[in-house]
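Audit log entry. Action: structure prediction of a protein-small molecule complex. Ligand: zinc ion. The ligand was supplied as SMILES and no pocket hint was given, so placement is left entirely to the predictor. Protonation state taken as written. Sequence taken verbatim from the request; no trimming, no tag removal. Recorded inputs:
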Amino acid sequence: MFFSEHFITTLILSTLIIGYLIDSLAEYLNIRHLNPELPHEFSDVYDTDKYAKSQAYLKVNTRFGFITSSFDLAILLTFWFGGGFGLLDTFVRGLGQNTIVTGLLFIGILLLLKLLISLPFSLYATFVIEEKFGFNRTSFGLFFKDLIKSILLSSILGGFFLSLILWFFESFGPLAWFLCWMASILFIMAIQYIVPTWIMPLFNKFTPLERGPLKEAILNYARSINFSLSHIFVMDGSKRSGKSNAFFTGFGKNKRIVLFDTLVKQQSVEELVAVIAHEMGHFKKKHIIRRLVVSILQMGIIFFLISLCISREGLFHAFFVDKISIYAGLIFFGMLFSPIDLFLSLILQISSRRDEYEADQFAAITTKGHHHLVTALKQLSAHNLSNLTPHPFYVFLNYSHPPILERIRALEKIGTSPKGLTP
Ligand SMILES: [Zn+2]
């Protein structure tokens, strides 16, 4: 029953439509939830104009997101029910290549089409919306240079990985899912190393943080919590956008912190240390390693499920494709899996929001006070025009971090509780 054509069609179609309706409802509620009155916690970083601007930014982005997702859904349904998958399959088979090359072409063309369709939307988002709100610093030249670099990179890395997967499923029968799983674990480990050392420098310049009070303070803090840190870099984020951020890359002894130049400019030494303390909290509280283990287990389960579904005739008929193939099966499985994926991502987000509170708490305790983290968070949200009052349902569906206001309130609670500051 599960693999009957009609059941699969109904399941995927209803997931797409219900998902679209739920998202649109959440966005509507989110806009309705905007409050013209500034939360009093933010009175020192926002004035009336800036607060109104942040709400206008949310409205513009929401409207644009609604148009994009409606368009995407319409295109997908037209392609699906217009027999697009079958036509493409006939075309790539007609080129007479072996199954792996045929598969790479099938998936490559689909991804390229998706990219071309979304291109006008990302141009609009960058050069109209971000520009209007004063964030955009990207030139057309840089935008297209970035685009070409990312296409080349994903063709090389993605193409290599996909060839392996196709080869395993073509040649190793019941062992294939296990081999795919092992290969993807190796691939993830390699990526952890390749991304910071080779890939990110293709897009940005990373300058070691120069000696001075900031570097001193960060190193002192790291020492105080026994955190081994090999490098601190400043990244020229201002090349593309005025928004600011900070992140960690690498593992073990090779961990490095990256601070956006925009962040270094905006925040005081104490605030920057508080932000870094939060990030280090994710390591110390084992969030990073736990997320890695969860995603590795998740991949194993996914490859196992793929092996169960990939050659079912019903799955292919649901997409109007006659001939069974591994490559098309992978794409169709991806669509069949989307309801489970949605459910899993909601659970992961709940756990991620909990981790954020824990990392905040870690930072407050180890930097001996929550004030600097609170002011850093407030400035960051004012600078990035974040939504201060998101609707709880929207947060539940979309937020990997708790809303800033809730984080600040939680931090203030630690600050005032008598045993709050003992680790
Ligand atoms: Zn965090």
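Audit: result stored. The longest strand covers residues 231-235. The chain is about 70% helix and 5% strand.
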